[in-house]
Write a structure and sequence with these properties.
428 residues; 10 helices; alpha+beta; Jelly Rolls; 18-stranded mixed sheet; 27 strands
Amino acid sequence: MASCTRIENSLQAYIDGELGDSDRVILEQHVAECRACAENLRRQQRANAVVFEAFALDRLRTSLRARVLENLPEMESVQEDIESVNWRAKHPGPWYTRTAQFVPAAALAVLVIVAFVLQHYWPSSSTSTEKIGLVSFTHGIIKRSEENATARNAVNLNDYVQCNDRFETGAQASMMLSITGPTHLKAAGDSSFKVVDSRRIQLENGTIWVDVGHDGSLFKVTTPGGVITVFGTIFSVQVKNAITTVTVERGLVQVENGTNFCRLEGGQQVTISTQGLSAPIEVDAAAIHAWAKPISPDADSEALFEDAVLPKSEATELPGRVAFFVDTSQNGKSWDVTAIRVYWQPDQIATGHCGYDVYVSSGNGTPIFKAFIDGSVFADKRSSSYEIPVPNGPIRGVMSLIVRLVPNRVSGDIVNNTLDVKAIAVKP
């Protein structure tokens, strides 16, 4: 069945009678089964009728064809020596004289084919040369290594940052990166991290302070202990002795560890260790982040970043994030939820579907568990649902659930606009 988006884009062509037979059949079948699209079609037909009647006095009463033909210049007759043409047709000459006229075209075709083959098979580095950031502050010894490179080079002020650059700071060193978003990252001494891209950081060891701009897309920091996801905030992450500590100064941060997750607000802190995810505690975030305050961008570096790196157009909200309210009660009594099932209408045409991070919370916002749906699940044209079992037994004593689906674009960029969520439950 075609998606609602595709049908919506074809409504005007259907009304104008410009759709092909197959597309018209697909649209009519979809409209017969989808009340929303049927209502959109009727609304657009009414709008077309109103516009048609509104411009009744402005419509042409006669065809313009005759008037256009009257004003076209007459073509001059071409005098051709018919006898010479017939003689050349009957006496074409030897083959090499006939094929000589095709040599330039054949040579051009060969050059195009050779250029295409060379471009396709020429060895190239996988490292992206796109500038995604700038080194805007340095102090002490700082080293950088590029993707797939073992050599470590010294970092200088105003050096550009590219995807997969890895940085290491010395014992008494500190640095600051300005990244598109805009995002500002400060690293303390004895820290090592990798800038995967403008929205993903891998912290291996040490401490970083991050101020994430509100550009509508997700920003992730991965550590050996878990994943930190933010939309726009100020926070810090520390990895020391196999313990990850996340401190939020402002905004909202989501911390994930396996199937568990929690949300932190300003002034809260959480740790991830071998025992799992701790409960959030109240802390003085400003005091904890005092080490980062003396680190500020160089004025010239800030101007260079805004001029040469920062995109001139504002980023837009990434589509596809949806949340569902699922009632898990009946007659005032809660049901035991054993699984969450996600439904959608298969798209028979589109390829490259994105996956989804699934976050399940109680109706009052208490996190319960996290799961992931791979994009290959949506690529199966025969599949229209996917069941996510509740880890560690059923969910009990909860009257409602909030299920959030966040696109994960590792496998593709195509989002599904027909998602629905239901709970699979049994009576307690």
